[in-house]
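hey m, so remember when u said the C-alpha cells were messed up on ur end? i reran from scratch. heres the input so u can diff it against urs
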Amino acid sequence: MKCDVKDTDAVKQMPKTIYLDNAATTILKPEVLDAMMPYLTEKYGNPSSIHSFGAGCSAVCESARKTIAGLINAKDNEIYFTSGGSESDNWAIKSVAYMKKDKGKHIITSAVEHHAVLETCEFLQRDGFEISFVGVDDKGIIKIDELKAAIRPDTILISVIYANNEIGTIQPIKEIGEIARSKGILFHTDAVQAFGHVPIDVEKENIDMMSASAHKIHGPKGIGMLYMKNNVKLTPMIHGGPHERKRRAGTSNVPGIVGFGKAAELSSISMAKNNAKITEKRNYLIDRILSEIPYSRLNGDRDRRLPGNANISFRYIEGESMLMMVDMKGIAASTGSACASGSLDPSHVLLAIGLPHEIAHGSLRMTLSEFTTKEELDYTVEALKEVVSKLRAMSPLYEDAMKKKEE
C-alpha cells in the first residue's frame, strides 16, 4: 500500500520557507517590534535609576506587568520577570524544594514534562530529594488516580505542565490544583506553551506558580515570567540587587519586557478569534494526513489539545530523515525523535503515551500560527506524501510489513 502521490505543481515548486515550528519559537510581530524600538534606542535608561530617564523606563515595565497579569487574572505584584521559561521553572521548583526541605523532600511531577522541569527534578534527586513521575494515558493526559496515590505526608510540591510542548495535550489543571490545595501542597505549572494561546485563570485553576515565555506568543526571546501567588514567598535564585521586589536580581530587560507586554496585549485581544481559525486549519492538516497517508496516527488528544499542534507518527520510517527531507522542500517542522540532539532514544513523551520505539522514531511535530495559510498546508501534505513514500520505498521494515499483509 503506497501513498497516493500526485505530480502536482504544489510539490514541484519550492516555496518560501513554510514555518511549522511555532512551538519552538514564533515570529516577532511588527507591532511588538515597534513597541520595543524606542527602548532599544533613545529610551535606554535603567529602570532602577532614580532620575526621570530611568523612571520612564520603570513605568513602561510596570505597565507591561499589569497587562500580563490581566491575561491570567493575577495581581500586578504577582508577576516576576525572568529570562524565560527555563529560568522560571528552575526558580519555582528549586526554591520550593530548599525552602520546604525541613517539612519534606518529596516532589510530584509528570512523565511528560519539558526538560526544564525534568532535569531540574533530576538535579534535586541527586541532592537527596525524592521525585515521583506520574504516568499519562495514551492521549498524554495525566492519570489523576496515580497522582492522588503518589501524595505523601512529606510531599511539598506538585509540578505539572499545562499543555505539552510535543503533542499539545492540555492537562486538567484545575482538578490538579484542587487536589494540591486540599492537601496544602504548592502547585506549579509550566505554561510556556499555553500562555497567550488558551484562556488561563490562576485563581479559578488553583495555580500557585506558573512559568511563561514571550517568544511563544510572537514576542522577543530572552524574556519570560514567573507568576507567584502573593502567599508564596519564594527565595531568590539570582542574588545581587533589589530588582523584582528583591526576588530576582539583575538589570531589567526593558525592551524585552515592553515586547512581552505588547505580545500579551495582542494575544488577549485576538485569542478567541485566532484560536478558531488556527484550530480549523490544524484539523484540516490532520484530516488530510490521516486520510491520505497510510499507517499514520495522531499523537495526543484529538480535541483537548493546543490549537496549533499536530503531532503525527508515520510507521516504517525514521523521523530525522523525514525532517531533513521536508526541510529540503522548504518546510520547517520538528521531529518527535531525539536523534537530532545526539540521542538514539525517541521522545520521552511519545514513549510515555505507549508508542513503541519504532513508531515513536517516525514522528513529526507541526505547529501552526495565525499566519499559517491553507495553501501552505496543502503544499505540506503533498510534500509529506512524497517524502513518506520515498522513505518507505527504502525501508526493509515497510517491505516486510507489506509482504506479511499479502500473505
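this time it looks ok to me. Residues 254-292 form the longest helix (39 residues). if urs says something different then somethings off w ur setup not the seq
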